[in-house]
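Thread amino acids onto this structure.
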């Protein structure tokens, strides 16, 4: 090392965040000729409130009928953890998780349920489904 060179000290949080990844790893469905449900419960969802910057906590549950691919669990855990230091609305992040998982595994059916801890005296639950049921807006 050259004289006078400084090593940048990294906090343990900086080191940990480097390992969080939005890459969802998949593997072949062991029974592609059969419809069966897979359920993954991720109780360690955290992010920041985009309005206040305060931490939000919740549980993400993913249920799906795989087609040709399944999601690998460690990659799912790191994917969920990747939201930790970002601001996200509950509705937005639940739909983003569904979209990313559908893109990665191309399931026959999938739902993502976000159950979020109390904020401002209100607990929230958001459910996103694939395939989409379509718009049911009333025409005025």
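Threaded sequence (140 positions):
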């Amino acid at each position: 090392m050259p004289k006078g060179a400084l090593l940048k000290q990294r906090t343990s949080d900086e080191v940990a965040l480097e390992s969080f990844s939005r890459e969802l790893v998949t593997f072949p469905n062991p029974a592609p000729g059969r419809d069966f449900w897979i359920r993954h419960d991720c109780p360690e969802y955290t992010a920041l409130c985009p309005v206040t910057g305060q931490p939000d906590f919740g549980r993400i549950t993913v249920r799906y009928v795989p087609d040709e691919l399944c999601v690998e669990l460690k990659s799912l855990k790191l994917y969920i953890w990747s939201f930790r230091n970002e601001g996200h609305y509950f509705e937005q992040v639940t739909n983003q998780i569904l979209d990313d998982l559908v893109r990665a595994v191309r399931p026959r059916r999938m739902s993502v349920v976000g159950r979020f801890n109390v904020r401002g005296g209100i607990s929230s639950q958001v459910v996103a489904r694939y395939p989409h049921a379509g718009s049911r807006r009333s025409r005025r």
